Amino acid sequence: MNAILPKIKEYSQNTNETTIKIKVLIDTLYNNQRLEKSQYKYILDNITEDETEYLYQKAFEAKMKHYKNKVYLRGLVEISSYCSQGCKYCGINAFVKDATRYRLTKEEIIDCCEGGYILGYRTFVIQGGEDRFYSDELMIDIIKTLKSKFEDIRITLSLGERNYLSYLKLYNAGADRYLLRHETASKRLYEHLHHDFMSFEKRREALANLKKIGYQVGAGFMVGSPTQTNEDLVEDLLYLKDLDPHMVGIGPYLCHSDTELKGNDSGTLTETLIMVALVRLQNQKALLPSTTALGTLDKKGREKALHAGANVMMPNISPTKHREAYEIYQNKICTGDTSVQCRGCIELRIKSQKHQVDLGVGDYIDLQEGAIK
Ligand code: 5AD
Ligand code: FES
C-alpha cells in the first residue's frame, strides 16, 4: 500500500476555505514556478477531485505558453529485455526467472529506426534493460551509423547507469539525450524499491554526470509505488526543481505479479495526473511525456495527460514479435501492434484532443532554433 493523496483516495470534499487555499497555492506555483516544502505538502495532503480541474487547467496554460498545443513524437525501440539491475517493481529485473529475454542486433535496431524514419519520426529512443552486451564500442557504432544514415535526427539513449567515461563516449559519438529516471528522490523509498547493490547516490551522480556532459537529460519517477508517502513526492518535486532536467517521465507504478512486490496496489490515474501537472507548473519548459503506463492504466490516460501538461508521446517502433517480452509491467498496450498501427493510433488520439502532431526533432524549447535563451 501507499499513503499518498489521502483525500483523493477517500473521495473527500473540502471546505471552501481549503479549496481557496489550494487554488492560491496553484496560482503561486504558476507564477513563481516554485513552492516551499510545506506548501507542496499542503496541496498533496488536501487536494480533492474538486481542485484537480483547476490544477490541470493551469498546467495546460503553462504548457501552451512555451510549447503551444504541439505534441512531439519519439520512436521507441526496446532493444533488450536482459537486465542486470534489481529494481523490485520491474518485470524484467535480473531476479525475475520466468521473464522472456531477447536482445536486438545492430542491424535490427537500424531497421526499426529506418521504418520509424519513414513514418516521420525524427527522434529515436534506444531503450533497454542494463545489458552489458551493448558495450561502448557497439553503441558508438549504432549511434554513428544512425547519425550518418539519417539527416537531422536526435538520438535518445535510455540504457540505465553507465560510468562517466561511457556516457561521454556515447555523447561524443552523437547521442543527444539520455533518459534515466531517478525513480524516487526519497532515499528511504529508493532503498525499499531496489536491491541492496543499487545505490541512491550513484543514481543521482549518474544524472549529474549526464547533465555535466551536455546531454538533454530526462529524469522521472513513479507515482503510487509501495509505501510511497506525500513526503516522498514532495522530495521528487524539490529534486526536480533543483536538477532542472530537460525532460521528466512520470508514470503510475503498475504492480507486476512476477516481481517480489507482487500483491501491492498500483498507482492511479488521478494521482499520476496531479504529479504531471505539478511538475509542469514548476518545471515549465520541461518536455513531459504522456507515458505508455498511463495508457495501460486507463484507455484515455494518455489523452488526459495532454490536458494536465504533457507534450510528448513515444510510440513503439520495436519489432512486434518481441514487444510482449519487454514486460516491465503487465497488460502493456501496443504489444500486438505494428509500428504503422501505433503511428496512426497516436495521431488520431492527439488530434481527438485538439492537439497537433509535431514531427520535428522536438528539442527542449531553449535549445530550439530561434529560441531566446
Ligand atoms: N510499473 C510502472 N513503471 C515501471 N517501470 C519499471 N517497472 C515499472 C512498473 N512495474 C518504469 C521505471 C523505469 C521505466 C523504464 O519504467 O520508472 O525507469
Ligand atoms: Fe500503439 Fe495505440 S499507440 S496501438
Number of beta strands: 9
Q: Give a list of the ligands.
A: 5'-deoxyadenosine, FE2/S2 (inorganic) cluster
Instruction: Kindly report the CATH topology.
Output: TIM Barrel
**CATH H-level superfamily title:** Aldolase class I
Number of contiguous helices: 15
Which structural class do the helices and strands define?
alpha/beta
State the CATH architecture. Alpha-Beta Barrel
Strand content: 5-15%
For the biggest β-sheet, the strand order reads: 2-3-4-5-6-7
Are there runs of 5+ residues with pLDDT below 50, and where? none
Helix content: 40-55%
Largest sheet, described in full?
6 strands, parallel
From the alpha carbons, calculate the radius of gyration and give it in angstroms.
Answer: 20 Å
Intertermini distance: 44 Å
The overall number of domains is 1
Order of helices and strands: HHHHEEHEHEHEHHEHEHHHEHHE
Mean pLDDT across all residues, rounded?
97
CATH class: Alpha Beta
Outline? globular
